[in-house]
Amino acid sequence: MKACYPPIEPNKTGFLTVSKEHTLYWEESGNPEGKPILFLHGGPGSGTQPSHRTYFDPAKYRIVLFDQRGCGKSRPHSSLISNTTWDLVSDIEALREHLQIKQWVVFGGSWGSTLALAYAETHFSRVLALILRGIFLGRKKELDWFYQFGAHHLFPDEFEKYATFIPKGERGDLISAYYKRLTSENWDERKKAAKLWSGWEAATLRLIYDPALFAHFTEDERADAIARMECHYFLNRCFFKTDNWLIENVHTIRHIPAVIIHGRYDIVCPFESAWDLHRAWPEASFEVIKDAGHAASEPGITDALIRATDRFKN
Predict the structure, then answer these.
(1) b/e sequence 142-152, b meaning 16+ C-beta within 10 Å
(2) C-alpha span between 29 and 11 (Å, rounded)
(3) Model confidence at 314, in pLDDT bands (50, 70, 90)?
(4) For 258, which of 64, 92, 115, 130 could close a Cys bridge (C-beta 3.0–4.6 Å)?
(5) Could you give the CA distance from residue 88 to residue 68 in angstroms, rounded to a whole number?
(6) 249 with 138: CB under 8 angstroms?
(7) What percent of the chain has a predicted confidence (pLDDT) above 70?
């Protein structure tokens, strides 16, 4: 079973101003003359971290990471202003042009898979290949499953912490109720809401609960960005024109080599979404990890991701 490559440091970092409100952090590592590959982090709002560089052979890839609007080292932190899926798609193109990259491989997991699909379907001529993990299509039934009714059957104890923070009269629409608190001027209320929102996700990410991952997700600044960004995007249905927009437009990218990887027991992004994408895009390689949940760090998923990046590196 393949493991990640050894840790490396970036050989170039910078900031790119993409609007009057937002400046993005970006970095490059690996081989400056290698095949360009773009890593798209999840959330939205989680930001990048050093371990994200290790999914790629540094001798073969020019590895590009960036923090999406409002998270990580990008500024302003946790800002929801001018922060939509289509702003992020434009940011990716601006970064590609800034780095003078003609085409690149695009790698994204969870929300990163959503953004990778949106970008590829908009700028398909710029994409050499796609590696997609933990498929999330931004549909109402996916949001309802995790944030309202469905996943609670499997994690009633953890869901209770998330749901009972909201008064009974508002529990019919938990996303809206959380949005009200996550955008509150009451910092204590906002902080508590952020930790509970992010904690619900962190508790269900892996097949086997990981306390270190939970602590990472619920750290104050990270939790604030994750919770506010996710709630903002999900309240607005990820800013897609239709509920099934990504599937409806998959015909634009069926010619692009691609790998779809999904954990059989993914609670955060249920397997049905990966199955629907597979059915709409039979040309893409499809790999189901039989003993994994959602997290990229689970051994079976890591193995599949490294095999996928190795496949496209030459």
Answers:
(1) bbebbbbebbb
(2) 5
(3) confident
(4) 130
(5) 7
(6) no
(7) 100
Joined tokens for residue 199: 């904690």
DSSP 76-87: STT--TT--HHH
pTM above 0.85? Answer: yes
- Give me the residue spans of the domains in the chain: 12-140+239-311, 141-238
Closest C-alpha among 139, 97, 145, 94 to residue 114: 139
Active site residues: 110, 266, 294
14 DSSP β-pair partners? 26
Cα–Cα dist 254/256, whole Å: 6
Q: Where are the alpha helices (DSSP H) in the chain?
A: 85-98, 111-122, 140-147, 156-163, 174-182, 187-204, 211-217, 220-235, 245-248, 271-280, 299-311
Residues 6+ away with beta carbon under 8 Å from 117: 108, 130, 132, 137, 246, 250, 253
What is the average pLDDT across 224-231?
Answer: 98
